[in-house]
Amino acid sequence: MEFFWAFIVGGLICVIGQIMFDVFKLTPGHTLSILVASGSVLSGFGLYDKLVDFAGAGASVPITSFGNQLVNGAMEAADKHGIIGVITGMFQVTSSGISAAIIFGMIGAIFFKPKG
Protein backbone atom coordinates (compact mmCIF):
# COMPACT_ATOMS: atom_id res chain seq x y z
CA MET A 1 0.00 0.00 0.00
CA GLU A 2 2.95 2.36 0.54
CA PHE A 3 3.72 2.38 -3.17
CA PHE A 4 0.08 2.94 -4.03
CA TRP A 5 -0.27 6.00 -1.80
CA ALA A 6 3.09 7.37 -2.93
CA PHE A 7 1.92 7.08 -6.54
CA ILE A 8 -1.46 8.69 -5.82
CA VAL A 9 -0.12 11.61 -3.76
CA GLY A 10 2.83 12.29 -6.07
CA GLY A 11 0.53 12.05 -9.06
CA LEU A 12 -1.94 14.48 -7.54
CA ILE A 13 0.81 17.02 -6.93
CA CYS A 14 1.84 16.66 -10.57
CA VAL A 15 -1.77 16.97 -11.74
CA ILE A 16 -2.13 20.20 -9.77
CA GLY A 17 0.98 21.56 -11.49
CA GLN A 18 -0.28 20.48 -14.92
CA ILE A 19 -3.64 22.13 -14.28
CA MET A 20 -1.83 25.36 -13.44
CA PHE A 21 -0.08 25.16 -16.81
CA ASP A 22 -3.03 24.14 -18.96
CA VAL A 23 -6.09 25.73 -17.37
CA PHE A 24 -4.72 28.84 -15.69
CA LYS A 25 -1.97 29.36 -18.31
CA LEU A 26 0.66 30.05 -15.64
CA THR A 27 4.32 30.13 -16.59
CA PRO A 28 6.71 27.48 -15.25
CA GLY A 29 8.17 30.06 -12.86
CA HIS A 30 4.77 30.92 -11.42
CA THR A 31 3.81 27.27 -11.09
CA LEU A 32 7.10 26.42 -9.40
CA SER A 33 6.75 29.31 -6.97
CA ILE A 34 3.17 28.39 -6.07
CA LEU A 35 4.08 24.74 -5.43
CA VAL A 36 7.10 25.64 -3.29
CA ALA A 37 5.06 28.21 -1.35
CA SER A 38 2.23 25.73 -0.80
CA GLY A 39 4.72 23.18 0.57
CA SER A 40 6.07 25.89 2.88
CA VAL A 41 2.62 26.84 4.14
CA LEU A 42 1.63 23.23 4.74
CA SER A 43 4.89 22.70 6.59
CA GLY A 44 4.32 25.81 8.69
CA PHE A 45 1.01 24.36 9.86
CA GLY A 46 2.66 21.00 10.55
CA LEU A 47 0.72 19.19 7.81
CA TYR A 48 3.44 18.41 5.27
CA ASP A 49 5.40 16.12 7.59
CA LYS A 50 2.20 14.13 8.15
CA LEU A 51 1.75 13.91 4.39
CA VAL A 52 5.34 12.62 4.02
CA ASP A 53 4.70 10.04 6.74
CA PHE A 54 1.59 8.90 4.86
CA ALA A 55 2.82 9.02 1.25
CA GLY A 56 6.59 8.66 1.59
CA ALA A 57 8.39 9.49 -1.66
CA GLY A 58 5.10 10.62 -3.20
CA ALA A 59 5.33 13.71 -1.01
CA SER A 60 9.08 13.99 -0.46
CA VAL A 61 10.18 13.94 -4.12
CA PRO A 62 8.00 16.66 -5.77
CA ILE A 63 8.98 20.34 -5.64
CA THR A 64 6.58 20.99 -2.76
CA SER A 65 9.00 19.19 -0.47
CA PHE A 66 11.59 21.90 -1.21
CA GLY A 67 9.33 24.41 0.54
CA ASN A 68 8.92 21.93 3.38
CA GLN A 69 12.69 21.61 3.75
CA LEU A 70 13.15 25.38 3.74
CA VAL A 71 10.67 25.84 6.57
CA ASN A 72 12.01 22.90 8.59
CA GLY A 73 15.59 24.17 8.27
CA ALA A 74 14.58 27.70 9.23
CA MET A 75 12.58 26.57 12.26
CA GLU A 76 15.30 24.21 13.47
CA ALA A 77 18.03 26.85 13.20
CA ALA A 78 15.79 29.51 14.74
CA ASP A 79 15.51 27.36 17.86
CA LYS A 80 19.31 27.21 18.10
CA HIS A 81 20.43 30.65 16.90
CA GLY A 82 17.43 32.95 17.10
CA ILE A 83 16.34 35.24 14.28
CA ILE A 84 19.65 34.88 12.37
CA GLY A 85 19.07 31.12 12.32
CA VAL A 86 15.94 31.60 10.22
CA ILE A 87 18.05 32.67 7.26
CA THR A 88 21.10 30.49 7.83
CA GLY A 89 19.01 27.40 8.51
CA MET A 90 17.37 27.53 5.09
CA PHE A 91 20.76 27.64 3.38
CA GLN A 92 22.24 24.81 5.44
CA VAL A 93 19.41 22.41 4.67
CA THR A 94 19.19 23.13 0.95
CA SER A 95 22.82 23.86 0.12
CA SER A 96 23.77 20.31 -0.85
CA GLY A 97 20.88 19.94 -3.30
CA ILE A 98 21.45 23.34 -4.86
CA SER A 99 25.21 22.75 -5.06
CA ALA A 100 24.66 19.39 -6.74
CA ALA A 101 22.30 20.96 -9.29
CA ILE A 102 24.85 23.65 -10.13
CA ILE A 103 27.77 21.19 -10.39
CA PHE A 104 25.90 18.65 -12.51
CA GLY A 105 24.52 21.45 -14.68
CA MET A 106 28.04 22.70 -15.32
CA ILE A 107 29.27 19.18 -16.12
CA GLY A 108 26.38 18.69 -18.52
CA ALA A 109 27.13 22.02 -20.21
CA ILE A 110 30.78 21.07 -20.66
CA PHE A 111 30.15 17.66 -22.23
CA PHE A 112 27.00 18.24 -24.26
CA LYS A 113 26.22 20.78 -26.97
CA PRO A 114 22.69 22.21 -27.22
CA LYS A 115 20.74 21.74 -30.42
CA GLY A 116 19.96 24.87 -32.30
Automatic annotation (TrEMBL):
Pfam families: SpoVAC_SpoVAEB (PF03862). The chain crosses the membrane at residues 6-24, 31-48, 83-112. Keywords: Membrane, Transmembrane, Transmembrane helix. InterPro entries: Spore_V_AE, SpoVA. PANTHER family: STAGE V SPORULATION PROTEIN AC-RELATED, STAGE V SPORULATION PROTEIN AEB. This is Stage V sporulation protein AE. The gene is spoVAE.
